Amino acid sequence: MRVSMPSAIIRPAHQWTGILLIFFIGVKMLSGLNFTGAIDIFDVRTASWFHFSKWIDIPLLFLFCFHAAYGLLRLFIGKVQKKWLAFFIASGIALALFLTGAGVMYF
Fold first, then answer.
1. What's the average model confidence in pLDDT over 49-62?
2. Domains contained in the chain, number
3. Of residues 2 and 70, more confidently modeled
4. 81 DSSP 8-state letter
5. CATH code: domain of residue 68
6. Cβ–Cβ under 8 Å, residues 76 and 93
7. Which residues, including other chains, have CB under 8 Å from residue 55's CB and lie 6 or more apart?
8. I need a labelling partner for 51 at 20 to 30 A (CA). Which of 21, 64, 72, 83 fits?
9. Segments forming the whole domain that contains residue 12
C-alpha cells in the first residue's frame, strides 16, 4: 500500500504530539496536586515554576492545537482529493489558533 506524503508526515506528527501532550499535562497535574497537598513530589518553588511557567504552557498550547488539527485531518484525509492543500490548511488553522491563544495568554 502506497502512503501519500501528507499522511507520512501527519501520522508520526500526530503520534508524537499525543505523547508530548501526555507528558506536559502530567507535569501540570502533578504540580497542581502538589499545591493541594495531595502529593509531595516537588517543593513549593519548583511546583510553582512548573505550574505557572510559560515554558510549559506555550508548548502545551502548541501541541494541543496541532494535535487537534492533525487528528481531524487524519479523520477526513481519505475523503479529500488535494491532500497537500488540506495539510497546509489544517496547519494554518492550528498555527492561527496557537498564535491567537498565546497572544491572549501572554502578550
1. 87
2. 1
3. 70
4. S
5. 1.20.1300
6. no
7. none
8. 72
9. 5-106
